[in-house]
């Protein structure tokens, strides 16, 4: 199950071009949007998905899942920072 959550977070972050935590907070303000996104197969609004950009274009994303409460986001951020540093 963790593999699917990681993939869903990465795909959502890359597709929306924003971290999943940011979009989750945005969607929480609109019940219709939140309900719509929550029912989309393969999407995730939980923290832990970070898009990776290279030269202003989306090059991929990192999805982290399976940590205890609050661990996924900082681990994803560290991975995205490492990817950016190697650019």
Q: Which stretches are low in confidence, meaning pLDDT under 50 for 5 or more residues running?
A: none
The chain-level mean pLDDT equals 91
- Counted beta strands: 2
- Spatial strand order of the main sheet: 1-2
Order of helices and strands: HHHEEH
Task: Assess the beta-strand content as a share of residues.
Answer: 5-15%
Which shape, going by the Cα principal axes? globular
Q: What is the helix content? A: 40-55%
DSSP helical segment count: 4
Cα distance, first to last residue? 31 Å
Q: Work out the radius of gyration.
A: 12 Å
Q: Structural class of the helices, strands and pairings?
A: alpha+beta
Q: Could you explain the architecture of this structure?
A:
With 87 residues, this protein is of the alpha+beta class. Strands 1-2 form a two-stranded antiparallel sheet. It contains four helices and two strands; from the N terminus they run αααββα. The mean pLDDT is 91.
Short description:
The protein has 87 residues and is an alpha+beta fold. The protein is built from four helices and two strands.
Keywords:
4 helices, 87 residues, alpha+beta, globular
List the helices and strands and how they pair.
Elements lengths: L1 H15 L3 H9 L2 H8 L10 E6 L2 E7 L8 H14 L2
Antiparallel strand pairs: 1-2
């Amino acid at each position: 199950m963790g593999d699917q959550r990681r993939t869903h977070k990465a795909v959502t972050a890359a597709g929306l071009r924003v971290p999943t935590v940011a979009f989750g907070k945005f969607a929480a303000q609109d019940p219709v949007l939140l309900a719509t996104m929550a029912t989309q197969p393969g999407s995730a609004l939980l923290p832990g998905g970070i898009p990776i950009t290279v030269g202003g274009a989306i090059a991929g994303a990192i999805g982290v899942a399976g940590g205890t409460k609050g661990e996924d986001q900082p681990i994803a951020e560290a991975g995205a920072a490492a990817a950016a540093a190697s650019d």
